Amino acid sequence: MPIIKKFSDINFLNIKSGIKCKKILSAENLNDNRIIIDYYEMSPKSSLDFNNNENDITWIQSLSGKIDTYFPNTYIPGRRVDEGKIIFIKGSQNINLDSPKGSTFIITRIPNYKVHEDHVDNKFESDLRFINWGNEPILKSEHDDRKRVYLISETLAGTNSVKGELIRYPISTSCPEHFHVGGEHYQFITSGNVMAVLDGAEFELNKFDLLYNFENEKHWFYTKDSACDFVEFFVPGEAKTIWTQTTNICTWSPLGVDINGKSPARNIAKHVHGEGKNI
Predict the structure, then answer these.
(1) In degrees rounded to 5, what are phi and psi of residue 277?
(2) Strands of the 228-235 sheet, one edge to the other
(3) DSSP label at 113?
(4) SS3 210
(5) DSSP, residue by residue, 123-189
(6) Domains defined for the chain, CATH in brackets
(7) What mean pLDDT is reported for the chain?
(8) Quick one: which of 132, 156, 196, 229 could link to 191 by a disulfide (CB 3.0–4.6 Å)?
């Protein structure tokens, strides 16, 4: 059965002065720690230390405000991160997150990420990337007005253990029913609301709610009188999508602009979801 976590039902935990957290997804929900998702709110001028373990992959996605990053005892330059960027961490790393004017963000962690990699090398690598997904190309569905932007991919992050996307649903829009083989994935609502149809049963998802789909679980989405944005992440990234109908398969074509209406950093060719090359 899918897992639905309603943001309003989760209590805040006080981490330290000026910082509070909601445990969105944990080992208690999945019976193991295959993926851990935490939501943070930081008051102005607060600071958080985060340590990534040797065998973990973590990404930090800003939802509002700006975050200043520092890396103690290293030569890595600090960077300011806003809503169009993701901090992607692979392996051992200590990072300090400062919030000059207040911010909200999600920290997602995959322990033991190598079990999701294609190659058999057991050596854990160390990597740090600032992914500017705000400059990634917008892709539009050929059958409706949905739009997609890749947030994490093998090209962007150097791993196929995870793939992430931003999906935009305008008012009165839907996608075909489908399920995934070879991986699990979740949707986290970042704005608006959407109806999720899970094996025929309907559930309303609102801002900051989370839906976790296990392998082979049928699902589709539609909006009514409100638009919706959500991010979704697949673990591993190369899960296969199976459509329950042969019509209106999700095919995505580039619009030639990024989310800010500017020229994108690269070109992505037209492709069926889950079957694109060099993404």
Answers:
(1) -110, 145
(2) 3-5, 210-213, 184-192, 228-235, 163-169, 147-152, 139-141, 251-254, 271-272
(3) G
(4) strand
(5) PPP-EEEEE-GGGSPPEEESSSS-EEEEEE-HHHHS-SS-EEEEEEE-TT-B---EEEES-EEEEEE
(6) 3-133 (2.60.120.10), 134-272 (2.60.120.10)
(7) 92
(8) 229
Which pLDDT belongs to residue 250?
80
Q: Is 162 in contact with 237 (CB distance < 8 Å)?
A: yes
Half-sphere CA count of 106, side-chain side, radius 13 A: 25
pTM of the predicted structure, to 2 decimals = 0.94
Return the pLDDT at 239. 84
Q: Are 225 and 204 within 8 A, CB to CB?
A: no
Residues 103/62, Cβ–Cβ less than 8 Å: yes
CA distances from 219 to 124, 210, 212 (A): 34, 14, 11
The Cα 2–Cα 219 span in angstroms is 10
